[in-house]
Amino acid sequence: MGAPEKSQANANSMQRVKVYRLNEDGKWDDQGTGHVTIDYMERSEELGLFVIDEDDNETLLVHRISSDDIYRKQEDTIISWRDPEYSTELALSFQESTGCSYIWDNICSVQRNLHFNSLNNETFHNANSELRELPAVELSTLPLILKTVAESGIADQMRLTELILSDQDFFRKLMGLFRICEDLENVDGLHMLYKIVRGIILLNSPQIFEKIFGDDLIMDIIGSLEYDPEVPQVQHYRNFLKEHVVFKEAIPIKDSLVLSKIHQTYKVGYLKDVVLARVLDEGTVANLNSIIHGNNAIVVSLLKDDSTFIQELFARLRSPSTSAESKKNLVYFLHEFCSLSKSLQMVQQLRLFRDLMNEGIFDIVSDALQSQDKKLVLTGTDILNLFMNQDPNLLRTYVVRQEGIPLLGLLVKGMITDFGDNMHCQFLEILRSLLDSYTLSGAQRDTIIEIFYEKHLGQLIDVITASCPSEGNAQSSSCSGERVEPPTVAKPEVLSNICELLCFCVLHHPYRIKCNFLLNNVIDKVLLLTQRREKYLVVAAVRFVRTILSRHDEHLINHIVRNNLLKPIVDAFVGNGNRYNLLNSAVLELFEYIRKENLKSLVKYLVDSFWIQLVKFEYLSSVHSLKVKHEQFLESFGTKGTVNVSDNRKRGDERALEKEEEDYFNEDSDEEDTASASMSNTQKVQTQPQAVLSNGVAASQPPSRYCLL
Q1: Distance CA 408, CA 516 (A)
Q2: How many angstroms separate the CA atoms of 97 and 78, rounded?
């Protein structure tokens, strides 16, 4: 029966397609609608794609399937390629995604067969035929077995899988032939066995995988794959697995099933990633990964249900008689055990992590974080990250306990310690999760935040002051005012992470931050970073101030104005000159934010104090707009003319005008009313901020106590 007649007979909705051809204008021309099938080309043993018009049975497309990688599957319903014979782009758009998947799998299978050998009419069966039986497994029949495996068609592959599984002794006999060929140094036989085993693995049958990856067969299977005819030298996979791979038991595992699954997992992973890495398709890799995932779940389930095993593990970790090297290996095992728990269902994972917490895993991690071994410290942080990703409240619950308080200090210490491997980033992430006010409950939140601000925030500020060129850096940031030994100069990356954590705290703990910042001059000290030569640290300081301003806290804004805290930023901006870089953009964005948010006192402060420096940058829209905004404030107040920042305001009416302007710019703030405009400068007293409770009601206690809120 000819190809067109055959296609017409097998046409159905699943194979209904539209044919498109790319024209010279780069647009797709619709060539018609028909039904697609795969069959032999006329008077040829090669396979091709046929599309027959659904209306008049005319042939819309004939394409010889190529072994080259020219085919692309787009979304779920389109297969496209560039036809090498006609030098044109073609595409099939399927009515149903199942039909697209079916044809795509057929194309991939034909390409795979083309890579093995040229197809033969005698061994290729069409969709309606069936493979009847396998050849006997003997040395003389190896060529026939290879032909059957390598040249089986799409329909035959399912049948071939059934026949292999139905013969209980097939693989035992096949591996017996492998050992004979290896003993006799029968290279041709070994090459054929390689192709047979490879072809069987590419059938991608989970039932076959279960058989060949058993303890009695897997090493022979790997051995047969050492004799790739396309590789000039014989590989030595088995020798590597036997001689060089060492299975370390940090604690003896008595369950034979657990041991078997551990060994099988490693060997399957080795086969996937090394032995057959260049020949496996995506589907086969996915199934092998499923085997590994399933084995991990079995291992973790069996170990977690063995109460004696878990108890012995933690008893050894706590025992003073356990050597340092053994404890290190036990911590590595504990980390791997926690990592493999991802294979469990979510409920089982949560139960396991709670059990580990109750057994004292955080005490073990605390000891690991105090080690001088960087790898051990990294392992400890990895364990904490696994807990934070699974259930952060487990670690938070531990930290608020009396025995867990030191762990928070170890995390802060780790963040400012130079481990050389950017490990301080991991400490930063853990601290951020612990201090995240959006996910903390009331009592737990207050306790963790209180511990951090009372005991550890000063450490971070001291690191900044000790690492920046300024006088008096030896002075500690602690509230006691005692002089302490200054920390060593930190790496720039550490300083950047400290800034990032401070910005996080500003957003999450505004009231705590306000109290601490005002009492300890934290903003002034962080702005010492503007003196560093690393531009990204200067940008970090600018971003820190920008984050503070985003809170719209009048006390902090007035503190900035009163203490001239934007001067370092303006100096850095002016020193940067006309260079268009991240620093330039960060400062201009800060100016733009102040203008857009209508922060009157800051606009007046910037223009009055720094316009002589900024005037040469007036060509920049952000700087010019800042000046315009200042003039608008003055005009709306009834003042004409421009502001002369060098005017000494000698006349009394000018002093009165200045006082009225200050009253205007400071209106709506939380400060107490200043003295009347007629009061002389010597009689003025500095205004104090008034406490405001969280509900917006003014507090009755003295203004200096607002920081206790």
Answers
A1: 19
A2: 9
